[in-house]
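INFO  loader      accepted 1 record
INFO  loader      residues=779
INFO  predictor   begin
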Amino acid sequence: MRWTQRLRGAATAACAAALLGSALAVPAAEAAAPAHDRLTDLVNPFIGSENEGNTYPGAAVPFGMVQFSPDTGHNTGYDYSENHIRGFSLVHLSGVGCGLGGDLPVLPTTGDVTNTDYASYAAGFSHDDESASPGYYQVGLDNGVEAELTATERTGVQRYTFPATDKANVLLNAGQSLHSTASTTVEILDNRTVRTAITGSGFCQATKPYTVYTITRFDRPFTSSGTWNGDTVTDNSTKSTGTGRNGAYLRFDTTKDRTVEATTALSYVDARGAALNLRAEGGRHFDTVRSAAQRSWEDRLDDVRAQGGSDTLRRTFYSSLYRSFLAPNIGSDVDGRYTGWDQKTHRTKGFTYYQNWSLWDTYRTQSQLLALLAPREARDMAISVIRIDEESGWLPKWGYGTVETNIMTGDPVTPFLTNAYQQGLLKGYEERAYRALKKNADGVPPADSPAVGREANEEYLADGFAPYIKDRPHAKPGDSDYDHGASATLEYALADAMLAEMAGELGHKADAARYAKRAQNYRTVFDASTGFFRARDASGAFTGPADPAQSEGFHEGTSWQYQWLVPQDLPGMVGLIGGTDAANDRLDSFFAYDQLVQDPAKTAREVWVNGPYDYYNADKYNPQNEPDLIAPYTYLSTGQPWKTTDVVHAALTLFTDAPTGMTGNDDLGTMSAWNVLSSIGIFPVQPGYDSWGLSTPVFERVDLTLDRRYYPRGALTITAPGTSDSDRYIQSAKADGAAYGRTYLTTGSLRKLRSLAFTVGGEPSSWGTSANAAPPALN
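INFO  predictor   done
INFO  writer      dumping tokens
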């Protein structure tokens, strides 16, 4: 049930109007005190905007195509430590590690237009005059202009309040962005309208080019205008095109009417698509759009009602929930057309097309959270991934817009789609998804495909492991599985395990047996002489330093961190390293457990964390990066579930209500989703399957409103009365009033539940320690 539905039957229209009023902005330096009747007041969009969290504070609606946000000079857009804004651009992704997007930075200025490089004409600003809330951003610039931003799904709406002047300008810079801009065109169509086409490429490395189309419509005529190409400004010109910097300036007389509003629509299809998006979603007053954006966010956040905990804890929680709904993003226009990965135009039928797939990250947390809280959108996202295979010939690895980037390694698309299947999101598409996954799991993309897929699959299928071949030339742009053979092997085996489950349930028994056997390939990179996973070269010999903290061949991690990435068979992994006692000793060392129980926050910040991009040369837990996201839940399988709570709650201290309050890159909601799920006490411990591990919630009560099409009960309440830093250990649990002793639930059991109740205390208990309490091995 949605927020607007809950308002029906309210006592008075005035009450409803008060609830749905425009959002109170959260000051940049410190979030405003919550009003408690509006969850959007608890969201601080500035969290993660410093220390390489790489979030953006600007305006967007859930899963919107447009993310209208300031760019300060950081390669991914906005950095809280910087004090100049180059422009407000249309496209951003939350928490990416490399520059992309930043298309069409727009900046209000005054005076003559002589400088066309946004690094030079950037306007200064102070955080004292800057605020943001879901769907809204505001800043006062040192040129005397106040800028405000809001958004719809496919448009960005801007309002500028100028000083009194006859030279109030709005600069539309088509030729500069956060990625590599190949060619651009800007056209002034009439005295209110500007159109652009921007072709660019790049994300970490070069990619095939893609084009975005925009059209901007102002609420009143401009008094004069012109364009620029490179450093040359041409007054009264109506078009500039080609390589280099192309842009347009529009001038207004604000001596009497100081406000200028404009709406910019975006399309990845063509100029017609942008015009249709503008016609459908434009033409409304700024405040009307802002209120609608705030309501859409209130609607989303209200599906999770958390009670208890400090205001700071609730702000970090709801800010993470907010970021979890920022991506993937709508890719189809209002008429259903979208540009596929074959670079041809297609049209949706019965679904919305989505794009932007940081799958190596999101398959571990965010895809499961969306399946729980936004299953209709999650279904369309999964269908979109299937369409990518059907239109381009191969499933994606890391997709941006209309192109494959091949960033990261392994086979993340398999657990992403098998998770969608296990959550019941692929009804009617099961065999289409399975065909694509089977092709991906058993082959390698042809040379003329931009995709790398399972690049080392030939060796993996023949020998059981992906070889680590240092400095091997890359055949295609992006990352190479050969550079990270050890971790690629573990990721392939994980994917095989999840595909085996799907194959068996669909009746493909021979395939299921074959994939289940391959799921044991994690054993091929286990070096018994060191007791750790280790890379093997093309000859099969173990290679690289024997010290697991100095290991090579692991992507953004070490053998210490990857040793727990065997969710399909933790009992088997535990057996390899000497049994349960040996595994618990190693886990305790990994988490610095003795220090942790004495001072959780200090251990998290001084022992675990060594910088946002410090991935290597470590023997400790790295809560800032994806390979370790499941690791704290390993204790559920080693008979010590209370230690999962200890580690998880310590890691949660890294999320704070400040610009530095993100642990590592957010990676399109991945880290935020980890925070949300871990805070409410259920976590996907076998990504790609339907197992949810249990730990102590940080809130006394959480009420989840669930979609009845997927969760017939329509709601789930999780309670833990008295939960706190001191009373954090589960003493007992009840599922719908009946004693529950296992440390996990399945999606099937979640669908039947109305309540999950924990009794907590100050000391560990025997709860969850019986022989059959742990999540079982698969296959």
